[in-house]
């Protein structure tokens, strides 16, 4: 699928790298859209929006878009989170548009204040991931509107919560009941077009043992040893990958076990994240077979997603905007 270029979006998206260089040897740029872009970006970043605490920024963003002639809908992601809303905006009365620009406005912890350094570099929580993308997208639409290049029915904006944890915002967005000819996802991609990204699989290993004084280890069963041996086995597996996305990789993000140095551990566990370069079923079969030989329980999380190969073709593509596959998803 090809869609008409959004040249301004692509030119402004430099901010999504987290680095903005002033023009004219370090002075403030006199390009109006740069001034507006930077001001909007700073406003977004000045409001903390850690995952599950996005309400203040969501309210500000809705008010901002309404004040700039967008029709705005707030969508509650679930009844148990009464202050967490996705923000959906469009022009006039036409909800169904040909193109969607989307990103997320939650961030990981901790909050880090916005700072613009003398060399033009911008730092702070969310400046890159992904408030830079939001600022670039909104500014691009405003500039294209002012130029008469787009009109009602051409583009909508969707900004979601919860991306950094369980993806609850984007899952809830499926309830919009809308489809588009093209979707531009705002994520930090080094100003390159993403042609695909890895999937994700999470599982936990649990090992049971029997507590005993370390002076009498023969009276206990060491759960820590069972877990370590299982992890060592995982580390030696040849997990299937793909030519496009590369290797499937493992990360032992959380490991816990035991109660004291002089006590044989009665329980141990590890949480493992897998970056999938190929469909999860093939990777799970290798892991399942290897863990059958170990005295551990293998528990897969319901969270996860398959690798994605994206349709990334853009007419009039800039030579510098080359496609790239990404390790994350």
Automatic annotation (TrEMBL):
UniProt signal peptide: 1-21
Stretches assigned to the Peptidase M20 dimerisation domain: 196-280
Pfam families recorded: M20_dimer (PF07687)
InterPro entries in the record: Bact_exopeptidase_dim_dom, Peptidase_M20_dimer, Peptidase_M20A
Essential cofactor(s): Zn(2+)
Keywords carried by this UniProt record: Hydrolase, Metal-binding, Signal, Zinc
Family named by the database record: Belongs to the peptidase M20A family.
UniProt-recorded name of the protein: Peptidase M20 dimerisation domain-containing protein
